[in-house]
């Protein structure tokens, strides 16, 4: 009977890493990735339904529910699957604008998914801002951000009316570390990781059996200094890392979340300022995030002198032969954000220095191994391990590259898109950065009890970037810039004067 259970074609074991994310669910932190696509026009509900049937449901995970037996979890075909239970048409009240959608989504994000059904929900908001929107909620156990971007792309087209609008497309593959994208977001982090760790990932399973014990007993680290993979150093750093300091962002959680998103930034402007400073796009954006968090804390009377707070940063470790698959293939590293640094240029260079130090470490592989281990542990032990991880950070900060060009879904043009990363354990804030169509989008999720007004954090992001631009232009550079930098500087001066590359009025703070 037991053998028949295991060999059932309609049920398969969940990987230990996906199981770990499944079991991190708790009322105060739901393991659900939430996203929204904004359309310029009304999207055709019935046409979108046909697209979902052809393109989304080709992934079997979206027709499978989760079955838990003891410490194990399984994917099982849902015999009662009905798309109507997952695909809904709704409308916003009142002015049906940004405030109304943020409120509705905050309530959704605080609501658990139904575990008796496949763990996802789509909502078409038929009356948002003169057009429409699609809100998506997908459980983290189904896949990570890179995997779900592939799912998104498979549902879209490059034109409004393609020849075969409902045909199931071949899954597009995002290749981390592409030369053309070497300055994009986390690409500079993805690229060395994929090269350095490709061989290591084949052998790390031999080490994860000892990893959890080492994490719980750091004194044994000396016995493993000859592993050859730097695991000792990575474990030592995690085991001896102190808890993050208490601020307005960290404390006892509630079961209610709040979200906000900001007006997007032109990606070219971010690249231009990065080129002038010799920093990556990611360095610039993370420095702006640190500045925004600094401003929020100062406004609430908190002392920020010398303050650092850590962000848990997902790092892509997906092997090339699994780029088209669902599931979770990422490790975690901890980045200390220099909140205490007021000068924008000093702060961005400090972010760059810290990011470079992370790129040469083994933290991500160690974390992936530990997640694999905790996914096989009894709940009580797993929760202890998650608490150990989560006390060391205040926020989760993730950065996902989206489509470079304008896309269409069911004939409707996608004006913009955003998403919100879930948090685990005691972590109370999520900061999400997503690129789309040469623009940069920011999303923030907070605990309602601790930060009831995330819009007052995210509204500062663009202002912090503009402060950096203004500070750069006020510097006296010892060497004259080359012609390309001179052209960039003209663009930056135009930005400060009130006009960006795209002709959009700018506000300088």
UniProtKB/TrEMBL annotation:
Q: Which GO terms describe its molecular function?
A: acyltransferase activity
Keywords linked to the UniProt accession: Acyltransferase, Glycerol metabolism, Lipid biosynthesis, Lipid metabolism, Transferase
Annotated O-acyltransferase WSD1 C-terminal domain residues: 327-468
Cited InterPro entries: Acyl_transf_WS/DGAT, CAT-like_dom_sf, O-acyltransferase_WSD1-like, O-acyltransferase_WSD1_C, O-acyltransferase_WSD1_N
Which reactions does this protein catalyse? an acyl-CoA + a 1,2-diacyl-sn-glycerol = a triacyl-sn-glycerol + CoA
Pathway-wise, it operates in:
Glycerolipid metabolism; triacylglycerol biosynthesis; Lipid metabolism
Enzyme Commission number: 2.3.1.20
Q: Where is the O-acyltransferase WSD1-like N-terminal domain?
A: 14-284
Q: Name one Pfam family in it.
A: WS_DGAT_cat
| Homology family | Belongs to the long-chain O-acyltransferase family.
Tell me the NCBIfam families matching this sequence. acyl_WS_DGAT (TIGR02946)
For this entry, the protein name equals diacylglycerol O-acyltransferase
Q: Record the organism.
A: Parachitinimonas caeni
